[in-house]
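Minutes, project check-in
Item: structure for the 66-residue chain
Input as provided by the requester:
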Amino acid sequence: MERQSELNQERQWQLYRRSVAERMPDSDYKAAVLAGIAHHLMRLDSIERSQRTVSGAAGTDRIRGL
């Protein structure tokens, strides 16, 4: 549960960064920052999906008595 809280905080931070970067004047730097943030958010999604898969599998094992 603590890890989920850390992931939520990181997601909120990245969304805040994106909102700030979107207000910047158009430039190569802005495009790079937004691409980096998008990549980071994608990685967070991937981590969260893998955690759900692992916790879901563990729950199934408990139900079956494994």
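Outcome recorded: The chain has a mean pLDDT of 88.
No further action items on this chain.
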